[in-house]
Amino acid sequence: MLEALIFDVDGTLADTEAAHRAAFNDAFAEVRLGWHWDDAIYIRLLQVSGGKERIAHYWRMVEPDVAGGKAAQAAIEQVHAIKTRIYESRVSGGQLALRPGVLRLLREAQASGLRLAIATTTTPANIEALLRTTLGPDWKRHFAAIGDASTAPRKKPDPLVYQQVLTTLGLPASACLAFEDSANGLRAATAAGLQTVVTPTVHTADHRFDDALLVLPHLGDVDQLLPCGVAAMEQRWVTVEALRRWHAGTTLFESD
Ligand code: XBP
Ligand code: MG
């Protein structure tokens, strides 16, 4: 029986990675690091979850002899704090919208008695900046559990953040569905025992999603995703009813 939906943030609730990349580059410029992550580099760096971990990974690539020391770790913390400030100021200005279908599904899920949760590797400040503008200042009341970089030091694909959320919900993984956009996120959710609906973005389109319950272009209109042979589909949304069927293992469009 489906009882809760657990959402990743970056790339799933909203397509945020272009804004993150711009904030990283502005932070590098502010401290005169001379680094610039173009889209191609960033798509590769997104294999590393967590902004601090991503900076450390890049630094080891470009200056292996400098990147390891204590001073480097302090510098990474400083640069990441600047990046988070820049990202927060950008996003809290309403720059980013939720992805197609997300708001409708959140509302429908709550109206259907499902509980909602968040499991992300980003920081509480970034979640606040995004959801305050998109769901309102009281956004937290919609979520029964929130796992993030402040609760789970081990980042995805480690399942820790999903395990923490399941514990807070007091539910087995079998009573929940996870929503993700990336291979690391899918691996984390799968390792926590969760069935996962994946909605890739341009940043994760080439990732492998073999263990996904379903891969959809987004959570809105599903008529584009259907395998051939299902003709004349009127417009359908990813509804709670559809999710309950997918979760139970019956096909979405089985005759009623
Ligand atoms: C995606 C990430 C984050 C963001 C950057 O998080 O891996 O690191 O790219 O945010 P999600 P930070 O699990 O929500 O997909 O710089 O705050 O890490
Ligand atoms: Mg994500």
From TrEMBL:
Keyword Hydrolase among UniProt keywords: yes
Keywords: Hydrolase
Enzyme Commission no: 3.1.3.-
Gene Ontology terms for molecular function: hydrolase activity
InterPro entries: CbbY-like, HAD-like_sf, HAD-SF_hydro_IA, HAD_sf, PGP-like_dom2
Gene3D superfamilies recorded: HAD superfamily/HAD-like, Putative phosphatase, domain 2
A Pfam family of this chain: Hydrolase
Keyword Transmembrane: no
Domain of life from the UniProt record: Bacteria
Protein name stated in the entry: Phosphorylated carbohydrates phosphatase
Annotated organism of origin: Achromobacter veterisilvae
Lineage, highest ranks first: Bacteria, Pseudomonadati, Pseudomonadota, Betaproteobacteria, Burkholderiales
